[in-house]
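This week, think about what follows.
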Amino acid sequence: QVQLVESGGGLVQAGGSLRLSCAASGLTFSIYSISWFRQAPGKEREFVAAISFSGGSTTYADSVKGRFTISRDNTKNTGYLQMNNLKPEDTAVYYCAVPRETLVVRTTHHDMEYWGKGTLVTVSS
């Protein structure tokens, strides 16, 4: 059984930082890319960041470039999303996801096969 568990969300003031973690089990973690999505109240789920299976390539939504950093530690079966200079508009439930296909990077939610339950990030002004 595949399981993804996010952690690290919470309440932070604008300009602050949080690091989210995504602990994976039940799959060969090192051959799957990892993607982060977020969903704010009343909005569609949107892509945030992705990292290739090896960690060699990353991609970010324009809204978070320069502020967020995605990484992974395949020895720990864990992905990370470092979020700096947080803004109120970053407030959302953040989800870790893994695509159906191995090796490739995907950035659309319908390509994701496995999802975590999400962790809430609230940024106050």
Observations:
- The mean pLDDT is 97.
- The CA atoms of residues 40 and 92 lie 4 Å apart.
- The longest strand covers residues 18-25.
